[in-house]
């Protein structure tokens, strides 16, 4: 049985040239398909890859459904407000909320830190992509607060672009505290340009990105259900 009668779930990711990154997004989409049963699930992207979100929504609507676009993005920002917003405007379509903030993302971050061998003696830098949208900064701040509440050592934040401090500056500041090591916690969905750049930020360890992880599809499912109502 489908999750929402007549609805088509359009899972919209950023898009990447990284084959590993594309594989992660496909895994999230496949996990979603398994969770929603008979509800059709289509892929879309805001950059780099096809189909673009606008045509994907149009195809979903022409197929006779109401399109629910679920951003496979960690926070709001230009792509959610403008690209996805334009795709659903003046159509029988709606945009769900992005994946973050969500405490389950903090759970994944803690898992990735543990997998990387981080300890309370290390300084952790939460590395987010960055956005000029104040709402995106608020979303990252909420995740930062959640990680600080659940990780035993010090945690600060750095951004890949469009916000300060940069990841490199945050790593340098963390190292200046005299911590045993500096560990970058990648608050990125998948491998790609931004995750690759973290290797040059000067940290001792960089964790794997959030995906693949089964909790990502469960968060996306909750966003879909909320929007479909």
TrEMBL record:
InterPro entries: CbiX-like, Sirohydro_Cobaltochel/CbiX. SUPFAM superfamilies: Chelatase (SSF53800). The keyword Metal-binding applies. Signal peptide: none annotated. One of its GO terms (molecular function) is lyase activity. Keywords: Lyase, Metal-binding. This is Sirohydrochlorin ferrochelatase. It comes from Cellulomonas hominis.
């Amino acid at each position: 049985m489908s999750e929402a009668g007549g609805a088509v779930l359009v899972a919209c990711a950023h898009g990447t040239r990284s084959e590993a990154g594309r594989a992660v997004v496909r895994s999230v989409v496949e996990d979603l398909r398994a969770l929603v049963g008979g509800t059709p699930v289509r892929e879309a992207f805001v950059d780099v890859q096809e189909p673009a979100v606008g045509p994907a929504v149009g195809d979903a609507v022409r197929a006779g459904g109401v399109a629910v676009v679920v951003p496979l993005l960690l926070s709001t920002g230009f792509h959610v407000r403008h690209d996805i917003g334009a795709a659903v405007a003046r159509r029988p379509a709606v945009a769900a909320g992005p994946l973050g903030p969500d405490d389950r993302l903090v759970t994944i971050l803690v898992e990735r830190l543990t997998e990387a061998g981080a300890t309370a003696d290390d300084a952790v830098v939460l590395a987010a992509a960055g956005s000029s949208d104040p709402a995106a900064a608020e979303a990252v701040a909420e995740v930062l607060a959640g990680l600080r509440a659940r990780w035993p050592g010090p945690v600060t934040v750095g951004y890949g672009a469009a916000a300060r401090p940069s990841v490199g500056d945050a790593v340098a500041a963390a190292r200046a505290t005299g911590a045993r090591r500096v560990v970058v916690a990648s608050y990125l969905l998948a491998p790609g340009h931004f995750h690759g750049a973290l290797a040059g930020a000067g940290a001792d360890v960089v964790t794997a990105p959030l995906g693949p992880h089964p909790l990502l599809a469960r968060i996306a499912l909750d966003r879909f259900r909320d929007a479909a109502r």
